[in-house]
Every structure is written in structure tokens, then in C-alpha cells.
Amino acid sequence: MQQVDRTISVVICSYADWRWDDFQRACVSVDKQLTEGDELVVVIDHNDGLLERARAEFPNARVVANAGRKGLSDARNTGVETSRGDVVAFLDDDAVAAPGWVAGLREAFAPDEVAVAGTLVRPNWEGGHKPTWFPEEFGWVVGCSYRGLPEVKTTVRNPIGASMAVRRTIFGKVGGFSDAIGRVGTKPVGCEETEFCIRVSAHDPNYQVVFDPFAAVDHYVPAGRQTMKYFVSRCYHEGRSKRIVSLLQGTTAGLSSERQYVRVTLPSAVVKGVAGSFRRPSGLLRAGVVVIGLGSTVLGYVVESLQRGQVTVSPT
């Protein structure tokens, strides 16, 4: 691996006492990988008790309170403002960085044109395995990589927010994460990293957003996120989030990856599930869930359009 002299600031944002064990594992997994000049920055989102506990537990980290509005976007922005590294990496508080994660991100920024990088996000299912009905094409529902993503290192529109990094100078050029979008507490919305990456590419077409499937994190998926209720809710709110991104950045950029996903990845999943149902009946079930997931996402997109008084533009 090429030696790259870039310092890394890893930002982990947390908000809830009940996530402490996961949060602690995330911090420890990063701390083991930091080298001279790197740092761990912890941002606590409007929870004074958790803030004090984190400061006591991680004396070597820079532990600060979210200086902005409640929610992940401003928590991340606070992390950017607090950190000092050449590259700012973001890890979810319920994810564990696999060995080599920090080194892989450091290497990703060797080319000067790389502005954003992301890695593989593997699901760590509570119970040891995913539900039989869960289609791998919907890994994003639980914040993980999904079937349809590239299998080699290449450019993408945006990485998954659970494991991504940004060259520090980029924030000075395009700003931070928009607080008009993104997760607040447990409400299953998102897409702040999508909107951010679209802004990056629009600012300078020479900037690259890269995805490296050979670096990875393991993202915990609790039982509560392994239900059909959560699946449908997450898809619905993803549709709402995608509509907001489209309003902010236009439908061409806002839905560029989704068109390929809807036209190629999902139909392939349905065909595969139906064709294999003679040997494995669960394939037919997964095919049905694909249709439900797509329908729920489209519904969220349409509802958000109507609520904002905008003419609906099909996400496909």
C-alpha cells in the first residue's frame, strides 16, 4: 500500500444513553487504528449526561457537544469545526471499524482529486443472520451496503453515511451538511450525505467521490430494525428524503443513482426471487418485499411532494 501523509480525524456522533455499549465499541475500534497526528472526535447531540460520561470514558478523545440544531447533520458539522485532520471521517455510533479502515481511508485520499470516500458497510445482525424475507438489495434500509453497489473501487454519486470521509478543504468550498435533511433521533430519515456529495460534484466536476469495497465497517442491526414495520417506515421516509434532495439539488442529480437502481437492480431481484422460488420458497417472499419496499418509497416521495405543494416528479 502506498504511504500517504494525511492526518485523519474520525468523528463519531451519539445521542442516546441506551446506545452506550455500541458507541463504546465504535470508539475503541477507531482508537486502535489511529497513528500520530490522527484524532478521535466525539460529538454528543444534546444530552448532557451522555456528554459527561463520554468525557470520563474517553480522555484521549476530543469530546464536545453539538453546537447546532439537534440532529445528525449539525452534530457532524460540529465535528468538522472541532477537528483538525486533513481528512474528516464519519463512523456511526453503532458501527465498528474493521482492521485497516483508517489506513484504507488514508490511502483513498492519495489522489488530490478525491473529495469524498466511502467503504463497505457490512450488516452485523442481532441474532446472527438476516430475516429470511429481507432482500439484500435493500441493505440501505438498515444503513448498510446492498446488492447493486460496485464490487471494485470506483467513483459513485455518494457513499453510505455510516462510513464516509471528506477532505477538509472541501467543507470550506461547499459548506457542511444541510440541517434541512438528515436523521434526528430515531426517526428513520436521511440523505444528508447524498445532498452533500451532489453539492461537491456540482462545485467542481473534477472532484471524485470514490467507493472502496475493500475497507469496511460492521454496522449493528438490532432486532427492532429487522421487522416489516421498520422496513416499510424506513422506505417511506427514504422517499420523503429523496424528494427533499431533489428540491434542493434538482431531480437529475437527486435521482441519478436511483433510476439505475429501480430500472435494473430491483427488477433483477424480483426475477431472481420468483425464478428461485421452486427451490427456495423464501425467494418469492423476498420478491414481494422488493415490490413493497419500492411502493413505500414512491409513496413517501409523492406525499412529500404534495405536502410541499410541488408537482410530483416520478423517482423512476
TrEMBL record:
Pathway: Cell wall biogenesis; cell wall polysaccharide biosynthesis
Residue ranges annotated for the Glycosyltransferase 2-like domain, each copy included: 9-174
Key words, A-Z: Glycosyltransferase, Transferase
GO MF term set: glycosyltransferase activity
Alphabetical list of SUPFAM superfamilies matching this protein: Nucleotide-diphospho-sugar transferases
Similarity comment text for this entry: Belongs to the glycosyltransferase 2 family.
Protein name, UniProt field: Glycosyl transferase family 2
Keyword Metal-binding tagged: no
Superkingdom field: Bacteria
